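In this section we walk through a basic example: taking a raw amino acid sequence and producing a predicted 3D structure, encoded as discrete structure tokens. The instruction is simple. Fold the sequence below.
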Amino acid sequence: MELQTVLSVLDYVFWAPVLLWIGLFFWFYRVSYPTYLKKMLRKGQKWAYIPAAKTFWKPCDIVFTLAVSLFSVAPSVWAFGKWSEIPAVYALAEVPLFLILGVALCNVAKKKTANLYRSAYFLEYRRVRYESESKGVFRSEADVHNQTVWRFTRNLKKAESRGRLWKYVNAMARTKKIPRDVIAETMYV
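The resulting token sequence is shown next.
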């Protein structure tokens, strides 16, 4: 009966780090992504809108990744100490692997968020292009781009002030509503 209890506890110990990794992904994806967008803005990506960024997000990324990595090693340390003759300290060799996994997870999550913002930007770009062409006013690419950046930033600031930034960006990025002329240009060329 005691072995049964130990194995049931092990089930929970195994799943706790998995849940922490999922939480870490959503931390990168939903909370600390402005640090990545700020880096993209410095590289010249004018579409990158940076919500109200906090200065403590970068250290929190490091601390949370390190904590999740160490907590993920805890079941291995326990298993090494309980069932193996190998010293439990050797299980700590997994920490660098989990740190590499954390960095990769950070990159994937933040790039996914950046792609979401980029898709939302290009929807606004198609709207500006469609409005200018439907009125018969043909603008240069630089003018359309500047008008798009201005409108995109204005709309996102308004959504952020109302507490709906994430919902608004998701809706813009996932919409399939494209003006008719844009469809005609792309489908029948």
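Looking at the output, two observations stand out. Helices lie at 2-31, 34-42, 57-83, 95-134, 141-161, 165-174, 180-187. The mean pLDDT is 82. In the next section we compare this with other chains.
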